[in-house]
Design a protein that fits this description.
Length: about 100
């Protein structure tokens, strides 16, 4: 397993409870696929460098996780489907 850093941006107009549910469901995708040490850091609403889908702000979330490749692949697939996630990036770090 490798260590990954994942950043994603959620639509800023999403209600607080819906945002919490979205973060929990994305974390659940990782844990169901064998991930360990999921650390969530919510940065809050920040200005975007450029407009994305008519939004100039977004709610930033950063995850640090030790996971197998399959878990990351599944999370990437789910994030592409979810309309509430307007951008995401996955970066592989050093070995866990």
């Amino acid at each position: 397993m490798k260590k990954y850093e994942i950043m994603y941006i959620i639509r800023p107009n999403l209600e607080e409870q819906a945002r919490k549910d979205l973060i929990a469901s994305l974390n659940e995708v990782l844990t169901k696929n064998g991930s360990q040490e999921v650390k969530v850091s919510e940065w809050g609403i920040k200005d975007l460098a450029y407009e994305i889908a008519d939004f100039t702000k977004g709610y930033y979330v950063v995850l640090t996780v030790v996971a197998p490749k399959e878990a990351i692949t599944e999370l990437d697939r789910v994030m592409k489907i979810r309309e509430d996630v307007i951008r995401h990036i996955v970066i592989a770090r050093d070995e866990a």
